Amino acid sequence: MNTQRFHKKTLQTIHMSLAILWIYQGLIPKILFQANDERRIWMLQGFNEHTALNLMQYSGAIEIIFGALFLTGYKTLALHYLNIVGMLGLSFLILLVDPHYFTQAFNPFVMNIAMMALSLTAIHLLKYPERNA
């Protein structure tokens, strides 16, 4: 396989992975199943249960839209920078609201670092294609 094709396949894999992760996180625990932990995060911020459920669904819809952007032709550096900022922001929010989540087996640290690493790799491939081709 030539280097240019390998470069393109690598970016496709990154974009598909980020799309799946964002869409899953928006759809499964926030919209379809309304996970207790997701609701609890909103309630710990002072929202009542009804408002927390609504905010959870809205945030799920936003995550699905964001994930879908990775499936479109809109695969710019800005999208990856936004992903990194989002992952850092969400991690910081959870750390402030309830740091206990970071001690669990499946915790925000693991997924957020992995998603940031994917975007950092994509940024490198997008910024310096001549070094990778």
TrEMBL record:
Instruction: List, alphabetically, the InterPro entries matched.
Output: DoxX-like
Q: Which residues cross the membrane?
A: 12-32, 52-71, 78-97, 109-126
Keywords on record: Membrane, Transmembrane, Transmembrane helix
One Pfam family cited in the UniProt record for this chain:
DoxX_3
Coiled coil start-end: none
The protein's name: DoxX-like family protein
- Source organism: Acinetobacter tibetensis
Q: What is the lineage of its organism?
A: Bacteria, Pseudomonadati, Pseudomonadota, Gammaproteobacteria, Moraxellales
